[in-house]
């Protein structure tokens, strides 16, 4: 690099290769393979850039640190109603706090709440809400909401599906423990049903269903009710298949099951029908058939739960289910036989009603959040 008086000095001082030269105030030269190139730079422009970057650096250096406001989903308080999400205004009023002017306009009518509002009052809020619980079910609802909110705040995320798998495992275990103590333990539950929902062998089904809910948005109540219905609460599990998923390749050994066919379906599946009888359901004539069919097999029970979630997500005919959110009644009504307006997971005309009865009897809907 050379400070030049004339351009010829660049040639004299460096005859070969690459060389650079600066002639004050605004001429920049460089020599490459014997040719000299000139670049004219406005010194005022350069000075302006230096001042600008220096100013930005000073502002960043002197600026006071600002607490980050993290937005999380507000818990559903009992006084809002079990099926109703509070608006941000309701939630802030519940805390007796003022809304910051900087609250984004697009969350004013949602259940999203800035954590900065609640830090000082959160402990009092927990105590006050738990004191309002009249039943153990009310208490579970509040406990579940508080557990979820604590996790969202602690890990600085706004939705449970943004938590890592490890964090979700911890969260799901806490919710499951509360569900067992405050719901199942307070009911008269048949021993085999209690074991189905609480045993850790071969896997913890409630925690697994909660994980599938977070990852694949299938309501935990639907997953558990289907597993219970398809296996008789774990009494009929073949090949670790908890959801009656068929093996389209027909490679597995056929087993006996019951299907409900129309006349056309009966004719199409006559080769697998062992016996049949005509019945009337909902004003329609159906064939109640004992059939031998092939069902999918899995290495582990967990693989069956995950395959069920993926199956519902990947098959286009089940897409309407995911427009229903966590509404277990809508899912149950829609998941059944196509003969009655369902998406066709099962052929039984009673499938949806049976799912709802299981969910309501054991309060599985409390796990949907």
UniProtKB/TrEMBL annotation:
Domain of life: Bacteria
Keywords, alphabetical: Hydrolase, Membrane, Transmembrane, Transmembrane helix
Domain Mannosyl-glycoprotein endo-beta-N-acetylglucosamidase-like: 186-368
GO molecular function: amidase activity
Pfam families attached to this UniProt entry: Glucosaminidase
Membrane spanning residue stretches: 36-59
InterPro entries tied to this protein: Glycosyl_Hydrolase_73, MGlyc_endo_b_GlcNAc-like_dom
Name of the protein described by the UniProt record: Glucosaminidase domain-containing protein
Annotated source species: Flammeovirga yaeyamensis
Upper taxonomic lineage: Bacteria, Pseudomonadati, Bacteroidota, Cytophagia, Cytophagales
């Amino acid at each position: 690099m050379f400070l030049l008086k004339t351009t010829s000095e660049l040639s004299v001082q460096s005859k070969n290769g690459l060389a650079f030269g600066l002639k004050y105030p605004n001429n920049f030269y460089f020599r490459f393979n014997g040719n000299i190139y000139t670049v004219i730079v406005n010194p005022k422009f350069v000075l302006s850039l230096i001042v600008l970057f220096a100013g930005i650096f000073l502002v960043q250096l002197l600026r006071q640190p600002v607490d980050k406001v993290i937005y999380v989903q507000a818990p559903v308080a009992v006084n809002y109603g079990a099926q109703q999400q509070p608006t941000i205004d309701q939630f802030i009023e519940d805390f007796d706090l003022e809304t910051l002017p900087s609250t984004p306009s697009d969350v004013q009518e949602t259940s999203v709440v800035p954590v900065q509002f609640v830090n000082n009052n959160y402990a009092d809020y927990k105590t006050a809400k738990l004191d309002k619980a009249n039943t153990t079910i009310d208490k579970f609802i509040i406990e579940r909401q508080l557990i979820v909110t604590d996790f969202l705040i602690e890990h600085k995320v706004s939705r449970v599906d943004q938590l890592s798998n490890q964090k979700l495992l911890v969260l799901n275990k806490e919710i499951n423990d509360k569900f067992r103590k405050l719901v199942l333990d307070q009911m008269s539950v048949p021993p085999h049903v209690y074991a189905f929902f609480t045993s850790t062998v071969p896997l913890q089904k409630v925690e697994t269903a909660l994980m599938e809910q977070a990852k694949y948005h299938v309501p935990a109540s639907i997953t558990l009710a289907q597993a219970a219905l398809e296996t008789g609460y774990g009494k009929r599990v073949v090949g670790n298949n908890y959801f009656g998923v068929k093996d389209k390749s027909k490679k597995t050994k056929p087993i006996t099951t019951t299907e409900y066919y129309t006349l056309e379906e009966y004719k199409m599946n006559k080769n697998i029908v062992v016996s049949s009888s005509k019945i009337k359901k909902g004003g329609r004539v159906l064939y109640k058939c004992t059939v031998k069919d092939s069902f999918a097999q899995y290495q582990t029970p967990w693989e069956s739960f995950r395959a069920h979630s993926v199956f519902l997500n990947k098959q286009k005919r089940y897409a309407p289910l995911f427009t229903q959110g966590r509404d277990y009644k809508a899912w149950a009504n829609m998941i059944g036989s196509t003969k009655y307006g369902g998406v066709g997971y099962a052929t039984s005309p009673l499938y949806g009603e049976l799912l709802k009865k299981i969910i309501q009897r054991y309060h599985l809907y409390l796990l949907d959040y």
